[in-house]
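Just scan this pair:

***
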Amino acid sequence: MANTLFDPHTLLADSDLGVLATIKSDGRPQLSPVMPAYDRTAGVIRISTTAGTAKTANLRRDPRAALEVTGPDGRSWATAEGTTTLVGPGTDPDGPEVQALVDYYRAAAGEHPDWDEYRSVMVSDRRVLVTLAVEKVYGADLR
């Protein structure tokens, strides 16, 4: 019997692993495991990736995406759909593109032990911040 108190927003906020679906140039879905950070108040999900990934290329061409997360028991799930924006990669460790990644990290994991090192790695890895503006959320608890 389904749990009538299930809130897919809560599952999205509590999940640190999900699958991001983007659209390939031929229209088929491309799926990527990601570590999302859901900011329900702002209505966005943030994901860090690198500039050379398929998901980055797909989102630059077509910004529509969906993120699916599953509960620990595998019987509950939530999906968020929306349109993305991408920031980065940055070339300046103190620039706005890297600062956006610092803000993402703080929201997702707290304080980093060495921010100078983190900023340097964000530049060398060519990290990109994906922000999914959540337009629709749905899901189910099938317990």
About this structure: DSSP finds four helices and seven strands in the chain. The chain has a mean pLDDT of 93. The chain has one domain: 8-141.
